[in-house]
Amino acid sequence: SSGINAEYGDVAQVCDLKKKQTNYIRGLLSDLQKGIVPKSWVRYTVPGGVTINPWIIDFSERIRQLHKIVEAAQKGQTALKELTVWLGGLFSQEAYFTATRQSVAQCKGYSLEELKLQVSVHNAPVELDNSSFGISGLKLMGAMHVDGKLKITEDIMTDLIYTKISWVRDQDIKISGKQITLPVYLNNTRTTLVETLNFFTDQDKFYERGVAILCTALS
Length: 219
Prior knowledge:
Layout: H1 2-15, H2 23-33, H3 52-75, H4 77-82, E1 85-86, H5 93-108, E2 115-122, E3 132-146, E4 149-169, E5 179-185, E6 193-200, E7 212-214
Parallel strand pairs: 1-3, 5-7
Antiparallel strand pairs: 2-4, 3-4, 3-7, 5-6
């Protein structure tokens, strides 16, 4: 982010006539005037064609979360684990799932292969045990979560306000009811598969309707 901040500062100084233009800054100004995100600013995966205004909002939220993670880490492992994470704002969603799984395996003394991902959705943060973690900001496309189950809806997108993920030993999982496995994509281009999550449901045709979960609504 420091490189982006420096370049943004250079652009601001040129606009204030406090600094001379260079070819590089001229290119940045040209991109910004067209609403294009400069290539040098794109350090993580974003949808192709995303314009500068939503990108800046998204980037600011990512940096804000990064500061929260650093602050929690400085307080200790417990504070870090209890932090609700905006999954879409991480720079590697796959690494988050890997790290949480490894954390539980180490804490419990289980092998990674024994642990399976379980999920529950809530309207607010809930108490977490040493196998669980809290996620915010997931977007459910083409369905909604009501009374512990997924239901197909005509709404394009609904929010999963708080999602609790738990790594549980396969032999300890007791399934009571029908489940559907949904893909979790990074964004609405659906080109980057992050994970799959299982939800309870009484309905069918989720796959036919393209129901999926997105980590971020940035488009």
